[in-house]
Design goal:
The complex is a heterotrimer of chains A (about 290), B (about 775) and C (about 160).
Chain A: E1 9-11, H1 16-24, E2 31-33, H2 39-44, E3 52-55, E4 65-67, E5 71-75, H3 80-85, H4 87-92, H5 94-101, H6 106-111, H7 114-120, H8 128-133, E6 137-141, E7 146-150, E8 155-157, E9 160-161, E10 168-175, E11 182-189, E12 197-208, E13 211-220, E14 227-228, H9 230-236, H10 243-256, H11 267-285
Parallel strand pairs in A: 1-3, 2-3
Antiparallel strand pairs in A: 4-5, 5-10, 6-7, 6-10, 8-9, 11-12, 12-13, 13-14
Chain B: H1 17-22, E1 37-43, E2 49-56, E3 66-68, E4 93-94, E5 100-106, H2 112-117, E6 119-125, H3 132-136, E7 159-168, H4 173-179, E8 182-190, E9 202-208, E10 212-217, H5 222-233, E11 240-244, H6 258-272, E12 276-279, H7 282-288, E13 295-303, E14 309-319, H8 327-337, E15 346-354, H9 369-387, H10 391-396, H11 418-428, H12 431-441, E16 447-460, H13 466-470, E17 473-478, E18 484-487, H14 497-509, E19 517-518, H15 537-556, H16 573-587, E20 591-595, E21 604-605, E22 610-611, E23 616-629, E24 634-645, H17 652-671, E25 677-678, E26 681-682, E27 701-706, H18 723-726, H19 728-740, E28 746-747, H20 751-760
Parallel strand pairs in B: 1-12, 8-28, 10-11, 14-15, 18-19, 24-27
Antiparallel strand pairs in B: 1-5, 2-4, 2-6, 3-5, 7-15, 8-13, 9-10, 9-12, 13-14, 16-23, 17-18, 17-20, 21-22, 23-24, 25-26
Chain C: E1 2-8, E2 11-17, H1 23-30, E3 49-52, E4 55-58, E5 71-73, H2 86-94, H3 103-116, H4 122-128, H5 140-154
Helix pairs in contact in C: 2-5
Classes of the chains: A alpha+beta (about 290), B alpha+beta (about 775), C alpha+beta (about 160).
The structure holds flavin-adenine dinucleotide and FE2/S2 (inorganic) cluster (2 copies).
One FE2/S2 (inorganic) cluster binds near residues 43 and 58 of chain C.
């Protein structure tokens, strides 16, 4: 334990409204803490810079899963365990339940939240490629206003987001449009369980008459933020799955990713494996 | 009629087991003493240089702290292991990152991290060396020199120790090589490995001017710390007391290192006048404490066309880190195990341990043998390939048998039959059937499967004359209630010491296992029965417990009912107890002892490096099945079979647990565990980034024993603690070669390494996988 | 300092502590229950596992104030009046505990697993315990203990 906990403040306002008021007040800045599986690690390591925290973990307003025939809305406080248990997610959004199942350990899944995963904005985060593939929308709330934005525009750079200091991520909405799609998700981590991904892909595709009619590919650990591989998608659009298209797709993937060397892996490895995963998906798509 | 009191060979409940599953066992961090303070360590941030200045951040109320520097050391500023080169606290210069410089103590644990950060040290940095190659380079800076007190050292620059081990007709070596059908050369490397006991290093020290120093701690070898304290405090042995607390894993990592942290806490206790606890957190433990020595082995072997080894040259080098610690002994064990269980008509092994500016490497299960055995077992496969034999046949033609001599000239008298072990292991692991199956399925599958094995042996007990020097002593006393209690400095840290020693005493004394007690190791009470290392506890200490038990029984015999010698139950437990009480009533106390007596035929010559290196060896054949995924380039061990001959198995459940745990560490060593060094500092010093296998990463580990009782251990037992660390890595890499055709020579073997080879070897993975623009755009280290 | 009230192993306690103190330290230092261990302090090893409102959590990652009002069960709450829980009994008999430092967490993770899946497959056991690192056993004997505990906990008990 490398921090002195008595230097930190934590409050637990009873309602969402009260939390938003605190965030908007000039007493801050306050940092929200949900499951704490990021922030408490930072505290333990002595690198939690913020001294004032506001707990949102207890807010039932943020922990819900609401389904309509057209949409699924997830409160930002939904835990990975909640995601894994939900039958609609299991059938309609299997990329997300799979990502939840390989996030950390059971204990981490019981505490860690989808909202925390999004706002923490790690390029290696597991559930974010799936959200990109599903074209999720985010609802952000503050004492002043509520705004809904496409998730694809949320990340600005390495661990940078458009979230304002007085805002909370309220919920994530997905369209239930993907029943006809083939789903593919694979995480390549440092080991089988409890691993940070070296590279991960979550993808959806629909074929018609042997041609790729629609394809969406989300990826982790290939740039400074989770990304959608739009150039690769363009190359594949309306194409049959042939050696040539696969080669072109691999080249496109390489051109739009910028992986790095770090203590977990190498840039070359990440790029090659990402392309292999894509190829594996395309092979599986073949009629 | 079965003997109801028989316990050896059965699996009674572990002595301290109930306390452990109830959460009641007290590890050092669970203890709190009245008035106790907490200690912390200020460490160097550079690898090598002179300390220019030390300043203290004025924002910190320093008057509340006690600060210890090298100047506060009452004795010598030395942590004594085998040599005196290792300072307790750096004073003028530092030789590795994270080297201790200052110690702080405060009543409130929470304020220490900020205080450590508030000590500012400036350095004049000097160039460091970080690999064996950099250290041995002719133009390398001289980074290490022996302490004046040490005479027996190598005179070569940066060299802790060298050995030359020659066997057979070495004068003729050149000629044999010149005329051999084949000469097979190979270079093999192994990386550093963290012990990763789940309980970090920790101690609590007390000091009193009259009684001296007392250290309670998580440790393997209480008397090692006693001797370190004697020097640091300039106190006689009886004023340096060490008490082992429940220890949450050690694996060698708490063999030499507690001398450092124990001395530190004791210095703070002396200066503050309070008991002081130092328990490292994970990051400090990983960055600041010892690891397994990285190694490089070079083999050059002359072989006949029918696959007979004719002669060999082995160069074995270890990276010892910044100070010698136990490196000479690690090098010795690695040297002696380098030839493996094979017959070498002529062999020369040159070994050396080099200094680098890494934190000192130290003891870790296997102690040099996993390193040299890895090389030899990979090299045997290479020889087989060159000669055109199967790995099995090549070994069969060269394995040692009864009546042969090992490379140190020791006559094999164990009635072991390695040919038979090999047959049994390959059968029970379905080695041949699976290879045939994989040959069929691999071509059309993105997952390439393969089988590999390793044949090896591991010496039990201290090397050579070591046991004579240790001269171990064991007591058994009677408690006032008339129960026998074993007094040894052998420690329990998960392997089952408490349990097996009690089994041996119980069986010898004809008592139920439950009736025998074992005392907590406290050097004010237990004799020096040697360190708990080197697979010596079951065989050496166990034998002494057996002899002390016999002596106790003899002493009590006048008080015991006289029955015929042949009776299996000469007396009942109640009769024993009344005899014990009768004896105590008459004499007050009873302590029976046994001291080590070297077997007459165990002779060793340290000068020529020849003789009986170990009283006995454990023999083994380990078989690994692997799957290499060509999409992700990751290799997984999918099945593991471990067959060994370890003499009588005292406690099957514990013995299997030892083998399984060792195999798991071996799998980690081969495929997962990498220390990432940045200028000598371990950069991945978190559990998140140092990858040890989880429950989802290990294959079924199937353990089998052959039991041929040995004359050296109690009831025929030999040592097993280190053996399982030796075989997995070479077996796995042999299997990967079988699966992929690629002969990897280095561990840890990570997917990135497999990727590099697969994509650069023309016959496999011919696609162009080079990313066109791979650039460092962001740092993920804090992701 | 904040007042924190929680139920620990069935007993309600109120403690004054910094709200960001780790639940782990609250349990060990303020409640003096040292069966919960720290192996890493980063959520990786599971030695600090406790049940919080019936859910398995790593207590090193829970701020004390977030446990306000919660039901916490530690290893000390698993046995009843010194009588071993069947899971503990099986760990003991099957060699599931070697050095014992991971054992409290491992037993709580097993408890949680068997609540969720009374008849887990080996894969489910492997997944359920993957957040609890053990360096001694290679897990084989732990799996064995869990499988034995499945049989034992199936038998009707009177609690
Ligand atoms: C051992 C371990 C293993 C892990 N393994 C994985 C893994 O495999 N894959 C993976 O992706 N992650 C992993 N993580 C990371 C972590 O669990 C996830 O990122 C998790 O989703 C974080 O959620 P949280 O609620 O715990 O975040 P917190 O720590 O509470 O918060 C994280 C960040 O998000 C902000 N925040 C949280 N909620 C909101 C909100 N509603 N509005 C605005 N800001 C908010 C916080 O201010 C903070 O900056 C692991 C963590 C640990 C400790
Ligand atoms: S100490 Fe909490 S998970 Fe390791
Ligand atoms: S028993 Fe030692 S870590 Fe699990």
């Amino acid at each position: 334990m490398r921090s002195n906990p008595s230097h930190y403040e934590l409050t637990t306002p009873a309602t969402l409204e009260a939390v938003l008021d605190i965030l908007a007040s000039d007493l801050g800045p306050y940092t929200p803490i949900a499951g704490g599986t990021e922030l408490m690690v930072a505290l333990g390591a002595g690198r939690l810079a913020t001294r004032k925290l506001v707990s949102i973990n207890h807010l039932q307003e943020l922990r819900f899963i609401a389904t309509t025939p057209e949409t699924l809305t997830l409160g930002s406080g939904t835990t990975f365990t909640d995601l894994r248990k939900d039958p609609v997610i299991a059938t309609d959004f299997s990329l997300l339940s799979q990502a939840a199942s390989w996030t950390g350990s059971i204990a981490n899944q019981n505490r860690g939240t989808l909202g925390g995963n999004i706002v923490n904005a790690s390029p290696a985060a597991d559930s974010l490629p799936a959200l990109l593939a599903y074209e999720a929308e985010l609802t952000l709330v503050s004492a002043r206003a509520t705004r809904t934005i496409p998730y694809a525009g949320f990340h600005l750079g390495y661990k940078k987001t458009i979230l304002r200091p007085d805002e909370l991520l309220h919920s994530i909405t997905l369209k239930r449009d993907f029943r006809e799609y083939a789903h593919y998700a694979r995480k390549v981590g440092t080991r089988n369980a409890q691993a940070i991904s070296k590279v991960a892909i979550a993808a959806l595709a629909r074929l018609k008459d042997g041609l790729i009619q629609d394809i969406r590919i989300g990826a982790a650990s290939l740039r400074d933020r989770p990304i959608r591989l739009t150039a690769t998608e363009r190359v594949l659009q309306n194409q049959p799955i042939t050696r040539e298209t696969i080669a072109a797709a691999r080249a496109a993937l390489t051109s739009e990713t910028q992986p790095i060397d770090d203590i977990r892996s190498t840039a070359k490895y990440r790029a090659a494996v990402a392309a292999n995963l894509l190829e594996e998906f395309l092979h599986q798509l073949k009629p | 009629m079965p003997d109801l009191l028989q316990t050896v060979g059965f699996s009674p409940i572990r002595k301290e087991g109930a306390a452990k599953v109830l959460g009641q066992a007290k590890y050092v961090d669970d203890l709190s003493f009245p008035g106790m303070w907490f200690g912390a360590t200020v460490r160097s941030s550079i690898a090598r240089g002179r300390i220019v200045s030390i300043t203290f951040d004025p924002a910190i109320p320093w008057d509340e702290f006690v600060i210890v520097t090298a100047a506060d050391i009452p004795g010598q500023n030395t942590i004594v292991h085998l040599t005196h080169d290792h300072r307790c606290l750096a004073s003028d210069r530092v030789n590795h990152p994270d080297e201790p410089i200052l110690l702080l103590a405060h009543p409130d644990r929470a304020v220490l991290p900020a205080a450590v950060a508030g000590v500012h040290i400036t350095y004049k940095e000097l160039p460091g060396v970080f690999t064996i190659e950099e250290s041995e380079a002719p133009n390398a800076p001289a980074i290490w020199s022996p302490a004046p007190a040490d005479h027996q050292h190598s005179t070569q620059k940066n060299t802790f120790k060298t050995y030359l081990m020659e066997s057979g007709d070495t004068s003729n070596l050149d000629h044999i090589f010149a005329t051999a059908d084949y000469i097979v050369e190979g270079e093999y490397r192994t990386g550093a490995q963290e012990q990763l006991y789940i309980e970090n290093n920790g101690v609590i020290a007390e000091y009193s001017a009259t009684d001296g120093v007392t250290v309670h701690g998580s440790l393997q070898c209480p008397y090692y710390l006693v001797h370190a304290l004697e020097l640091v405090f300039n106190l006689p042995e009886e004023k340096c007391r060490v008490i082992q607390t429940e220890t949450g894993g050690a694996f060698g990592g708490k063999e030499d290192f507690p001398s450092v942290i124990g001395s530190h806490a004791a210095l703070l206790a002396m200066k503050s006048g309070h008991p002081v606890k130092i328990c490292y957190d994970r990051a400090e433990d990983m960055a600041g404490t010892t690891k397994r020595h990285p190694s490089r082995s070079r083999h050059r072997t002359a072989v006949s066309k029918d696959g007979k080894i004719l002669a060999g040259e082995i160069d074995f080098a270890l990276d010892g880190g910044a100070y010698a610690t136990l490196t000479p002994v690690v090098l010795s064990r690695g040297t002696i195990h380098a030839p493996g269980p094979y017959h070498w008509p002529a062999l020369r092994v040159r070994a050396k341990a080099m200094a680098t500016n890494l934190p000192p490497h130290g003891a870790f299960r296997g102690f040099g043998a996993p390193q040299s055995i890895f090389a030899t077992e990979r090299h045997m496969n290479k020889i087989a390939k060159v000669v055109g034999l199967s790995p099995e046949e090549l070994r069969r033609r060269n394995l040692l048998g009864i009546g042969d001599h090992t490379a140190t000239g020791q006559l094999i008298t164990d009635t072991v039959n390695m040919q038979h072990l090999l047959t049994r292991a390959l059968d029970e692991s379905s080695y041949h059937a699976k290879r045939a199956e994989f040959a069929r399925t691999n071509p059309s599958s993105p997952i390439k499967r393969g089988m590999g094995f390793a044949t090896f042996f591991h010496g039990a007990g201290f090397t050579g004359s070591g046991e004579r020097r240790l001269n171990s002593l064991v007591h058994i006393e009677l408690t006032p209630e008339g129960r026998p209690q074993i007094l040894v400095s052998a420690t329990e840290f998960g392997q089952g010491t408490n349990t097996i020693l009690c089994q041996v005493a119980a069986e010898t004394l004809h008592l139920p296992y439950e009736d025998v007690l074992i005392a907590q190791p406290d050097t004010s009470h237990v004799p020096n029965s040697g360190p708990t290392v080197a697979s010596r506890t079951a065989m050496i200490v166990g034998k002494l417990v057996e002899r002390a038990s016999q002596s106790l029984r003899n002493t009590l015999s006048p008080y015991l009912p006289s029955t015929s010698e042949t009776s299996t139950t000469p007396y009942t437990p109640a009769e024993f107890r009344s005899a014990a009480l009768a004896y105590l009533a008459e004499h007050g106390t009873l302590v029976a002892s046994a001291r080590y007596e070297a077997p007459g035929d165990i002779l060793w010559d340290d000068e020529s490096y020849r003789g009986a290196a170990y009283p006995a060896y454990a023999w083994a054949v380990y078989v690994a099945e692997v799957a290499v995924d060509t999409t992700t380039y990751s290799a997984t061990c999918t099945d593991f079979y471990a067959l060994q001959e370890v003499g009588k198995v005292l406690h099957p459940v514990l013995a299997k647990g030892q083998i399984e745990g060792g195999v798991a560490q071996g799998i980690g060593y081969a495929l997962y565990e990498k220390c990432v060094w940045q200028k000598g500092h371990m950069a991945n010093n978190q559990m998140t980034n140092y990858i040890m296998p989880t429950s989802a990463d290990l294959p079924p580990i199937r353990v089998a024993f052959e039991e041929i009782p040995s004359v050296h251990g109690p009831f025929g037992a030999k040592g097993i603690g280190e053996l399982p660390m030796d075989g997995p890595a070479p077996a796995i890499l042999n299997a990967i070669e079988d699966a992929t055709g690629i002969a990897f020579t280095e561990i840890p073997l990570l997917p990135e390494d497999i990727f590099e080879r697969m994509t650069s070897t023309p016959e496999s993975g011919s696609e162009d996988l080079e990313p066109t623009n791979a650039g460092p755009y962001f740092s993920e280290t804090t992701a | 300092m904040t007042q924190i009230t929680l139920t620990i192993n069935g007993e309600t306690k109120t403690i004054e502590a910094p709200p960001m103190k780790r639940l782990l330290d609250l349990i060990r230092e303020d409640l003096h229950l040292t069966g919960t261990k720290e192996g890493c302090g980063e959520g990786e090893c599971g030695s600090c596992s406790v049940l919080m409102n019936g859910e398995l959590v790593n207590s090193c990652l829970v701020p004390a104030l977030q446990a306000n009002g919660a039901r916490i069960c530690t290893i000390e709450g698993i046995s009843t009046k010194g009588r071993l829980h069947p899971i503990q009994q099986c760990f003991l008999e099957r060699g599931g505990a070697q050095c014992g430092i991971c054992t409290p967490g491992m037993i709580l993770a097993t408890h949680h697993l068997l609540e969720k899946y009374p008849q887990p497959t080996l894969l489910q056991i492997q997944e359920g315990l993957a957040g609890n690192l053990c360096r001694c056993t290679g897990y084989t004997r732990i799996f064995d203990a869990v499988q034995q505990a499945i049989l034992k906990t199936q038998q009707p008990t009177n609690n």
